[in-house]
Design goal:
alpha/beta; seven-stranded parallel β-sheet; 12 helices; six-stranded parallel β-sheet
Length: about 350
């Protein structure tokens, strides 16, 4: 198939450091190429891919201080995709609802993967207006706030099978927190769990500009405890060692997590997960096999003592069964083929 992958421009594909959506776009794109498809990636110019790269800006917008209005290059990208739409059998967007108005009024099949939270009230009228647009959820739980949306499939994320692997000879000796420090990620809970269990905690996480005040006021004072080590943001090459050395990954979230990529990153390294039972967590964690989904701090603290009883080889094996990029790409291909077969003269919109 001739497939267009349309990525956000905030980060490169794949991102240099943090960037969950762009990382998934990269994994899908590379696996589609490996499966023999003709793929064009619309992304920032510093992206790296085996597909045909259509550069839509010089470099990732987060890393380009000369760009003060990020909406301008995004709009230009949508126009470029629209002009080239007949070059493709299917258009796959990763821009949330931004493509809906323009691409609902044309006949080339398209689909949008929704990567973020969907429980915001302002989204309701958008999905009322565009209730026929096919979208993909990344967990079944993510769908709950938008029953009116046209969910064509739920496709769980996946990682390249050999991207993150267990490091032999490493003796796990600490708890880990990975990803981003923000109020909804609850790094403070991770610190409290580590202290309550007298277990070292290593924090490998970025702090976005919007979360600097939260970090300075809430998290930074907690880092003074001798059990706590703040590492900062790490890249893909550092993750296997970091996660392999962890007894378990703490994901004590306080929001409806759409998927939670860090959980399967840990599993790829054979590291079990303790996560609060919100959003996708019960779908991702196999209870008592790859970790524990908990409802309270007391349950989380108790679960730490059970982590060493989970065979790390079994955690890795379950990752290989459920969460590889090849499985993800094959699921998308099946969806693409279904959408391409459907008659689609142009979707009607509620306002028309």
């Amino acid at each position: 198939m001739r497939i267009a992958q349309i990525a956000p421009l905030t980060e490169a594909v794949p991102p240099k450091l943090y960037g969950g959506t762009e990382r998934i776009v990269s994994y899908i794109t590379e696996e589609l190429v490996a499966l023999g498809h003709d793929v064009t990636l619309f992304a920032s110019g510093d992206s790296i891919t085996r597909a045909k790269l259509a550069p839509m800006c010089r470099k990732a917008l987060r890393l380009d201080p000369s760009v003060r209005d990020a909406n301008a290059p995004l709009n230009l990208m949508l126009e470029e995709v629209y002009r080239r739409r007949h070059d493709f059998d299917l258009l796959h967007f990763h821009l949330d609802y931004l493509p809906f108005p323009l691409f609902s009024r044309q006949s080339v099949p398209f689909v949008t993967t929704l990567h973020g939270r969907l429980d915001l009230p302002e989204l309701q009228p958008v999905f009322d207006a565009f209730s026929q647009v096919p979208v993909v959820s990344i967990s079944n739980d993510q769908r709950r706030p938008l029953p009116q949306a046209n969910f064509a499939a739920t496709i769980h994320h996946g990682l390249p099978e050999r991207l993150l692997t267990p490091r032999p000879g490493v003796t796990p000796g600490y708890l880990a927190f990975l990803g981003r420090i923000a109020p909804e990620k609850r790094c403070d809970r991770a610190i409290e769990i580590a202290i309550a269990t007298n277990t070292p905690l290593k924090i490998a996480a970025k702090v976005d500009r919007v979360d600097v005040d939260y970090f300075e006021s809430k998290i930074k004072p907690m880092l003074a405890h001798p059990l706590i080590e703040f590492i900062g943001e790490i890249d893909e090459t550092q993750k296997p060692g970091f996660l392999s050395g962890a007894i378990g990954l703490l994901t004590p979230i306080d929001w409806p997590e759409p998927f939670g990529l860090v959980m399967i990153e840990a599993m790829a390294c054979g590291t079990p997960v303790i996560a609060f039972r919100h959003g996708s967590v019960p779908e991702v964690i196999d209870e008592g096999l790859t970790g524990f989904a908990v409802n309270s701090m007391a349950e989380a603290i108790a679960a730490v003592g059970r982590l060493r009883g989970l065979p790390r080889a079994a955690v890795r094996a379950r990752f290989e069964e459920r969460f590889t990029a090849r499985r993800m790409a094959e699921d998308y291909v099946a969806l693409y083929e279904t959408l391409a077969r459907q008659e689609r003269p142009g979707l009607a919109v509620a306002a028309e």
